[in-house]
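Onboarding guide, step 5: your first structure request.
Type a short instruction followed by the sequence, for example:

Predict the 3D structure of this protein.
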Amino acid sequence: MTNGAETNGAEPNCSELPAAEPPGTDPGSGIPAHSGQQVGLTVLAEGPFTRGPDGPLTTTLRVPVERIGPGPRSARFDVIVRRPGEKPFTLELGSPTPPWMVVDERPPDSLAALLQDSRFLAQQVYAVAASTLALFESTLGRRMGWVGGGRLTISAYDRVSYRESGYYRDDGLIRFGHKRDGRAQKAVPLALFRDLVAHEVTHAIVDGYRPKWADSHAETDQLALHEAIADLVALLSVFSTQTLVEQLLTQNGEASLDLDTLDENLLRSDLFRLGDGMFTRGSARPSLAEDPHPNWRTLSDPHLRGGAIVQVLLRVVARLWITRLDAPGGRSSLFQVARAGASVGRQVLSMLIRSLGYMPPVDVTWEDLLRGILAADRTVVPDDDLDYRGVVVTAFAEAGIVLPTPTDLYGVSTFTGLRYPVRLAALGSDPEEIVRFLWENPTLLAAAKIDPTRPIVVERVRPTLRVGPDGFVVSEIGSTFTQGFQLSTAEARRFGLTTRAPVFIRGGGQLRFDEGGRLSFAALKPILDPERQQAKLDAAIQAPHPVDAAPPAAPPVAPRAAPPPVPVLPGATRRIAAAPPEVSAHRRPTFHP
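The system replies with C-alpha cells like these:
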C-alpha cells in the first residue's frame, strides 16, 4: 500500500430500524439522527484581503452537525461576539428545526462591509474552530478533551490588542482582538483570519491532550513544540484549499508561471504565510526560503525555536509535492499542480497530528517528535511506497535532528515475558489496570526508573480507531503516566544533582497496546535518572526566561456573583450576552499568534 490516500471511517447505515421510522431517524423520537453527518459552512479561504473575482476568496469547510444555540454556542464552544464600542451580544445562527445547525451565509462582497459583519464573523470563528477540532478527532480516532471537560470560550472581537490576543489556558479562553492595517480604514478583527483561529484552537486542543507541555515546569522545547504544531496546523489547513494554492502560484500573473520549471525553490518562496499578509514573514515567523538559524535549539523565543521545525515540515511538503509533479501528468495543468500540493499538505498534516499519540507526556524533545511521526505513520501505513518517511528523516537530519543508530522505533524490543492483567479489556478504560501493569513488570519499572515508594499518576487511558489506506481499521489503546516530586537540597545532592536549592523532578511515559492488549509501543522519560535531570536543571539555569512562556499563575480571584438573566431585546434578533471572562490587566496569554 502507498502513503497516498487516507480514508476516514463512516458511520454504518442503520438498516434495522423499525419500519415506522424513516431511515436515519432516532427510534421512538421522530427526530432525524445526525451522527456522522457533516454540513458545509462558508469561511474566508485565508483572510479578508485575499480576493477572488467577485469578492473575498472563500472556501467551504465540512463540520459535524450538532445543535447550535444562540451565541453561537455548541457542546464544545461558546463564541462571544462584540462590535467595537458595544456590549457582547448573541447571534441567532441556528435553524429553528432539528438539528439546529448553523445556517450558512456568504460574506459581503465589499471589504468595509465584511469588517463590520458580526454575523459572518461568528460563522467564520465557529466553522474554523469546529473543523480544526474535527480534524484532530478524525485523525487520532478519539474525542479530544479540553478546558477540564468544559466549553472553550472564544471571544471573537475582544477589546484587546494583537499582543494580548491568544489562548489563556488558565481561563479556558481564546481572545481575538484587532489590528490596524493600511489596506483598511478600520481595525481588522483577527478572528477573520482563518489560520489565526486554527492556530489558537490548536493550542487549546494540544493543551487538553498534553497539559504538562505548557505547565509551570515546562521547558522552552515544549512551548516551542506547541507553537510549531499550531503553526503547521494553521498553515497546512489553509494550504489544503486548492483554489487558494492556485491563486498563490499565480499571484505574479499566470502567464509568468511555467509549470515545467516548478522546483523546490519556487515552492519554498511565499506559498506558506500567516495572517493573509498582515505580518511580514521576517518578523512574525521565519521564512521558508531561508535556512533555520544555526543555533535554533538555543533560541529563547518559542516562536523562533519552533519555527525551525515548521521550516523542516514545510520542506517535506515541498519535496513530496515535487515528487507528485514529476509523475506522469503531474504538471499537465495548474489544476493538477494545485491539487497535488493541497493533497500532500493534508497528508503531512495527518502524519504530524498522529504523532501526538506517540510522544511522552512530559519533557518531549525534537527527537521524540521525529520518532513519533515515524512510528505513528508506520503503524497506519506499513508500506511506504512513496518514501514519505524517508523524506521526513532527511529533512529532520538537515536541521540536526537524528535518531540514534540502531533505533528501536517502537521501544518495546527489550520488554519480553511481560505479565498482563486477566481482564485485558480493562486496559482500555481503567487507569488502575495501567498502574497494576507497570507494577507487575519490574523491567518496565526499571526502564522508566520509577520511584516505587511514590505514587504513579495515570493521566489518561483511551482507545483509538484509525483507518489505514487499505481500508482496515487500526485499533489501539493509548495511556500516559507520570511521576513527579520535590527533592530537598540534601536529597538532590545525594541523588547526584549539583544544586543549592530544592529541585522538582518528574518523568513518565506513553504506552500503547495493540488490539490484543499487548504492549506495542513505549516512549519513556526516566524519573530517577540523574544525568537527564541534571541536564534539565542546567538548561533551566542557563536559558533566559522565554518571551512567551506560560506566565506564573495569577493570585486567586474571589468568586464573581452570578450574572443577571440575559435580557431579550424587543423586536431584535439578538440578545445581550454575558461578557467573556475577565482577565487581569497584567496577564498575558499563554500562547499568542
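Each response can be followed by summary notes, for example: Residues 3 and 387 are 8 Å apart (CA to CA).
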